[in-house]
Amino acid sequence: MSVLDHLWARGCAFLGTRTAIMGGAMSWVSERHLVSAISNAGGFGVIACGSMTPALLDAEIAATQALTDKPFGVNLITMHPQLDELIGVCVAHKVSHVVLAGGVPTASAVRAVKDGGARLIGFAPALVLAKRLIRIGADALVIEGSEAGGHIGPVSLAVLAQEILPTVREVPVFVAGGIGRGEAILAFLEMGASGAQLGTRFAAATESIAHPRFKQAFIRANARDAVPSVQLDAQFPVIPVRGLANDGTRRFLAHQAETLRRFQAGEFDREAAQLSIEHFWAGALRRAVIDGDVEQGSVMAGQSVGMVTAIQPVAVIIAELIAQAEAAHAARSGACVPDAASAAA
C-alpha cells in the first residue's frame, strides 16, 4: 500500500473511488463529459446542477450514467426554488452522493437525501458550521478556502484547515480552494484531510466543454489575475466571486459607481439599485464558458489558475497529482519514485 492509499483510505471508502480527488462543481463546466471523465479516471466527478430544472437535471444524470459506471455526485444549491424536486430526481436515479451547497440545508432536505439512500456532503466555511452540519446529518464535509474560483467565503484554506482538520474527526473532510499540485494534497492529507476537491485544473481539461478561448485564458493567467469581485459601497452588498480580471470586472466597478450616483440623485430606490448591481453579471458565466467571451463574460477561476499550463486529459491531470504527492513523500523519506512527467506519460 502506498502512502497515498493509506492517507486517503477513508476518503476513497466514502466516495467509492480509487483516489480521493473530487471534481469541483462548476456551472456550465461540470456536466456529463467532464464528470464522467473524472470518475472514469479514478476520481469523483460532481454534476453542477446550478439553476437547472428537474427535467434538465434528470437528463444530465442519465447522460452521465451512460458514460460511466463509476460513482459520481450531484451538487444542489440549497436556495433553489425546486430543491425538493431536484433531490427527488437524484434519488430516482440512485445517485450515491448529494452535495448541498450555498447555505445550511433544512432538516427536510437532509432527511430527503438520506432517506433516499444517498450520502450527504455539506460545505463548511467555518468550524461552527462544520459542527452544525454534522449535527444535522452531513456524512462528509468540504472545507473550501477563499483561494477557490466562483463564489467564495472570506477565509483561506490554510486557516480553515488548521481550525477544522484537527477538530472534526466524526466525518471525512475534503479540502478545496487553490489546490493545483499533488504536494499540497499530500500536506492536507497529513493534516487529517480525507481527500481534496479541485475545480480550476479540471476546467481546462481536454474533456471540459469550455470554449477554447476560456481554456486559453486559464493558461495565460497567473495566480494574481484571479481576483474577487469588488464591492464599491457597503449599502449595496456584492456577493464575492473569484474570477479573472477583464473588461467585465472593470465595467462592473463603473456600473456600481453609476448606480450609486443615480441612487443618491433619487433616480433609483434602494431595491432597484441593488437589483441593477446584482443583474450586471446575469448570463455572464455562460458567455465566457460556452461562447468564449473572456473579455466581457465572467471567467471564474481559482488562484491555482497559474498552475494550469496546458490542456490535458483528466487522467493525465490525476496521474500528475498522484506522482507529485508520491515524489514529495519519497523526497522526505529518501525513497525513489518516478517523477510526475514519466508517471503521466
Automatic annotation (TrEMBL):
SUPFAM superfamilies named in the record: Inosine monophosphate dehydrogenase (IMPDH)
CDD domains, per database record: NPD_like (cd04730)
Which terms are listed as keywords in the entry? Answer: Flavoprotein, FMN, Monooxygenase, Oxidoreductase
Coiled-coil positions: none
State the superkingdom.
Bacteria
**Pfam families reported for this sequence:** NMO
A molecular function GO annotation = monooxygenase activity
What Gene3D superfamilies does the record tag this protein with? Answer: Aldolase class I (3.20.20.70)
Q: What is the name of this protein?
A: Nitronate monooxygenase
